[in-house]
Amino acid sequence: MRLHPQLLRSIPALVGVALAGLVLILNSGGGKAAEENVAAVVMVTPNPTPSPPPPPFLYFYPSAFFQDESAAAVVGITRGGYPYGVEIGGFFSTSDGTAVGGESCGPGIDYIRVVNAYVRLQQGQDYTTVNVPLCADGISEPPETINLTVGGRTGVLTISDEPLRFSISGRVRTAGGRGIWNAGVVLVSVSQPNRYTHTRGSFGWYTFDNVVPGQWYEIAVTGAPRHTFTHTQLFVDPLVGDVTDADFTADP
User: Fold this and answer.
1) Domain check: are 81 and 133 in the same one?
2) Count of the separate structural domains present in the chain
3) pTM of the predicted model, to two decimals?
4) Residue 23 clears pLDDT 90, i.e. is over it
C-alpha cells in the first residue's frame, strides 16, 4: 500500500496537534491481480492557544469611596492577575478632581495630597487600605471629588460636609406592566443588616432610603401573591448615587 503523494504533501508539519481520524479504503478486483487503491483522510486540529492571564496587579475595591470631613477617608486596595497570592506592590497617589489638595490643611484646602506612597500586598495577602487625610474647613459646599491611582488603575473618592446617603427604588410588576401590590423586597449588604419592605400602590413601587454609598448591594424579590419570577435578583456594585430603576418583572 502507498499513500497518494498529493495527500502526503497536504499534511502540515505542526507541533502539538491532535490526529482526529485516519480512514483507509482498500478496493481490489475479483479474480485479477490485486490492485490496491488507497485513499487516506487525515484530519488534524490545532490545539487552541488560550490567552495568557494578566500578570499580578493592584486595583481599588470598590472603585468609588465616600467620606465626610469628620475623619480620614479609608481607601481599599486588592489584587488581581496571575500568579495569584504572590507579593506585589505599587504606588498610590491622589490628585485634584473638584476638591483641592495641599501639603497641609489650611484655607481653601480640602485634603492632604498623597504622592507615590508605596503599597504592598505580601504573599497570601488579599486586601489592604490606605488613608487620605481630609480637612474640615467649616465651609458649607457640595460634595467634591478626589482622583485616585494605584499601579496605573483609577478610582474616585467623594468627600462631603455631612455623610452622604442615597436611595434605591423601583417597581415590581406583571409581564404586562401592571404593578404588583404587597410584593416583598429585601436589600442585602455585606456590612449592614438586611432591610425589608413591600411594594405599595397600584404601580408596585418600593423604596429603600438612607442607603450608605460606596458599598455592594443585592436587591431581591422575596415573594409576590400569585406570581413567580425567573429573575429575582439585581446587584449594585458599588452604590454611587440614587438608583431609581431597580425593577422586577414577573413571569407571564
Assistant:
1) yes
2) 3
3) 0.72
4) no
Rounded Cα–Cα distance for residues 162 and 38 (Å): 86
For residue 95, the domain's CATH number is: 2.60.40.2030
Q: Is residue 66 part of a domain?
A: yes
Q: Convert the chain into a string of H (helix), E (strand) and C (coil).
A: CCCCHHHHHHCCCCCCEEEEEEEEEEECCCCCCCCCEEEEEEEEEECCCCCCCCCCEEEECCCEEEEECCCCEEEEEEEECCCCCCCEEEEEEEEECCCCEECCCCCCCCEECCCCEEEEECCCCCEEEEEECECCCCCCCCCEEEEEEECCEEEEEEEECCCCCEEEEEEEECCCCCECCCCEEEEEECCCCCEEEECECCCCEEEEEEECCCCCEEEEEEECCCCCCCCCEEEECCCCCCECCCCEECCC
Let me know if residue 52 belongs to a domain. no
Q: CA 25 to CA 243: how far, in whole Å?
A: 69
Give the tens place of pLDDT for each residue, 142-176.
999 999 999 999 999 999 999 999 999 999 999 99
CATH code of the domain containing 223 = 2.60.40.10
